[in-house]
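User: Sorry, folds how?
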Amino acid sequence: MISRVGLVIRPGSQRVLNLAREVVAWCQARNLPLDVCPTTVKALKLSGNGIPSKEMVERADPIITLGGDGTLIGVARYVEGKSPVFVGVNFGNLGFLTEIRPDELMSVLDEVVKGGVKCAERLLIDVQVHRKGVIVFESRAVNDVVVQKGARSRLPQLDLAVNGHDVARIRADGIILSTPTGSTAYSLAAGGSIAHPSLSVILVTPICPHSLTNRPLILPGSAMVEVELPRFDDEVIVTVDGQVSAPLESGDIVKVSQAKQTVKFVVSREKSYFDILRTKLNWGVPNRPD
């Protein structure tokens, strides 16, 4: 039973605005309260100031995002407790998470009302930066947490530990700590494995390591992964889902673990995960005609 709908859009496209207006009209026709983000209020010239993403996630279910994967991730990161159903509509390029086409949305919403949509739950990971025993930064990731040098910095040395056990000192541009959902994002581009999104694992992928022996790792979802930055004078940054970041200092420890919460996305009834890999990445497709 729907009691309140959330709407978040990526502005800049007339197609997005037109579909957003359809969503507003659909809610009005059914007397459903609608929460919209401040960007949507401004783009559609609605009254009020809008609802911040963190508050929307606590109030609305379902939440509709019109844009790309980044639009969806930017809201889903705030899930606390039970996840609302996220209906991600793809106006982007790839759309691994936003599986719904714009022309499918209204029929999908009707199915949401009936409780007949197909959903998938994905794990989230929490990240904390500890500095001299104090937490100076924390966030949550849908895709990945990246510890990476600045553009003009020298190669840092990063000490990797799992469950309190030293694993390796890695000299590289950085390290990606990824969920299975994020395994097809930056981690894949850096040579990491593809992990089915139903798995409970954390992927560790070095970025351009200065050693042939530093290979990607796949760890249990229950693992506590720590990346410590030894003495280093140049710039190193921790970035969450490519959207939130903080500078690191010598001696900082980045701790990543699986969150207690999961996030729930509407997925296509027509396509499997492997269909999406083939269509989005040409994965498993011969590189020349038979």
